[in-house]
Amino acid sequence: MATRYDAGGSATSFQVSRLDPRLKLKYCDQPLHVHSGSQPNPRGGRVTVQVACEGTSPWRIYVPAEIRNMVQVLSLSRPMSAGERVTEADLAPLTVNANQQTQAYLTDPAQAIGQVVARPMQAGQILTQTDLNIAQIVHRGDHVTMMAGTGGITVSAEGIAQAAAGQGQRVMVKNSRSGQLVEGIVRDAHTVVIP
């Protein structure tokens, strides 16, 4: 088995399958030449490797091997219930074989901190984007300040949120004075910016 590390901290290992013990190869008096007989998948997986001796008694065999791309992902350090907000203390690094993962995993804590868990999850479970929702900071019926502006002039008005939304999400707001519905982007729990 050979292991190579890249700049991102992931490790790629090559595991050659067990050779048939009945195989009788002559001693090679030159360094062995090894190259992949098939185009490897960048995420890893099974490949066929050619091993060749070009010495005085040449021979060549094809050996099945597995490429394992080990990466560090985020997992939960404790069980969490649906709706709980993720903090830095809730995250734990976990090293996994990338080619065995079926969903896009998270690697950066910033992708998870502040979001809420979409469903109950166990400690040690790998976090994916589908496991998390943006935390709703504005709820239907909340009184918010609508802000609009151009060229350094800002106008504000009071309004009522017509739905729940998280930071950076769009939400409809009803102007408290005119009754007009406008769409804006949630900046914080009390402010919606009208583009």
From TrEMBL:
Q: Write down the Gene3D superfamilies for this protein, in alphabetical order.
A: 2.30.30.760, Antifreeze-like/N-acetylneuraminic acid synthase C-terminal domain
In this chain the SAF domain maps to 71-133
* UniProtKB keywords: Bacterial flagellum biogenesis, Cell projection, Cilium, Flagellum, Periplasm, Signal
Annotated localization: Periplasm
Q: Is Transcription regulation found in the keyword set?
A: no
Concerning InterPro entries, the annotation shows:
Flagellar_FlgA (IPR039246), FlgA_N (IPR041231), SAF (IPR013974), SAF_FlgA (IPR017585)
User: What family is reported?
Assistant: Belongs to the FlgA family.
Question: What is this protein for, i.e. what is its function?
Answer: Involved in the assembly process of the P-ring formation. It may associate with FlgF on the rod constituting a structure essential for the P-ring assembly or may act as a modulator protein for the P-ring assembly.
> Any idea what this protein is called?
Flagella basal body P-ring formation protein FlgA
Q: Which organism is it from?
A: Halothiobacillus diazotrophicus
